[in-house]
Write a structure and sequence with these properties.
Organism: Tepidiphilus thermophilus
CATH architecture: Alpha-Beta Complex
InterPro entries: 4-oxalocrotonate_decarboxylase, Fumarylacetoacetase-like_C, Fumarylacetoacetase_C_sf, Hydratase-Decarb/MhpD_sf
Helix content: 25-40%
Strand content: 25-35%
Bound molecules: hexanedioic acid, magnesium ion
Largest sheet: 7 strands, mixed
GO molecular function, one term: 2-oxopent-4-enoate hydratase activity
Keywords: Lyase
Protein name: 4-oxalocrotonate decarboxylase
Amino acid sequence: MKLAQEAIERLAEHLERCELEARDTTKITDDYPDMDWEDAYAIQEAIKRRKLARGARVVGFKAGLTSHAKMRQMGVSTPCFGFLVDDYAVPEGGEIDTSALIHPKVEPEIAFVTKAPLKGPGCHIGTVLAATDFVIPAIEVIDSRYRDFKFDLKSVIADNCSSSRFVVGGRIVPPQELDLRTIGVVLEKNGEPVAFGAGAAVLGHPASAVAMLANELGRRGEEIPAGSLILSGGITEAVSVQKGDAITLRVQHLGSVGVRFR
Ligand code: 0L1
Ligand code: MG
């Protein structure tokens, strides 16, 4: 690690304040060009500790930048991993207060809910599917704290991979009953289809993203506990939303989930 603990805590406070006060900032590597990957995840961990200290509960994890469309859109070449707290959860059909966000975008995702712990190294699609209770459609709302979504991978990891809100809904189905590679998704904004894709857009199979997450956590001596919800990553490019927009995600065999921005 290159950063002192004091700098890690200060950067975590800065990024979390930007999140809670809905204001943007320049990317942190501008001021700390030598920070390394361990520093980036340490800042993310410090943000998690701040939330837990205020009573939030970790409910799961997210894999981000897992499709070529997203990597191309953001100019990076590797996925990133973050945590989800209960504060981010929005009920299906619910409303999101746009004034609490900076510049939200939505992503169509497949969420996995685990029934057994998953601990890397060595996790693969098979171990993930065996440990999955069910999959369910999910809309992730990302809201990078970085001005104009301009960042590099270390800055984005420190910022908990732009995590902001998520909505799950539709049908729950055991993953063995589906071919998650060929499952089709349609994302609608105000009744108009705006993005389409199939599950294979996420690293060839959405369960690959969950396996990568488990292996990354294993490297740090951690695991995905049973009962976790995991967002496996956007199947299409992220779509910008504004006050007044209604978003619906339709997933083949899994029904639909919706949310409004007020
Ligand atoms: O969930 C995602 O794929 C987003 C990861 C962070 C990058 C971004 O803000 O677009
Ligand atoms: Mg996402």
